[in-house]
Design a protein that fits this description.
This protein is α+β, with helices and mostly antiparallel strands. It is built from three helices and six strands.
Length: 142
Amino acid sequence: MMNEKDILANKVVSKMLETDYFSQWMGIEILEIREAYSRIQMTVRKEMMNGFGIAHGGISFAFADSAFAFACNSDGKITLALDVSISFPKPAKEGDVLIAEAKELNKTRRTGLYLIEITNQQKELIAVFKGTCYKTEKNLPV
């Protein structure tokens, strides 16, 4: 059974996804949303490949960024990225089913630190994304 904060988190992410056309284009599916946490999935498509036949780094970055956004906005306050970085230990390939899991590592009144790991269907680590966010006073309309 979900608590009130997790119910709000799900409403917020549903509302965000309604107008997040890039996440929609990527084919992102929501697997789990809780306060300060998200787990999402997508399948790598042909138009996401670079000239080397592997997923363009921007696809993995954008996928992780969506998981980051869903997790850090889950309390209903508009929250924006301050600083992010990504590492690519293994390439994603066409047809791979990727899962991004975003977890809050630390938070203050105004900032949060998140770790997002992307794995493929074999549970191999594809990318590691670290993000710091800034929480505004503005509420997301839900």
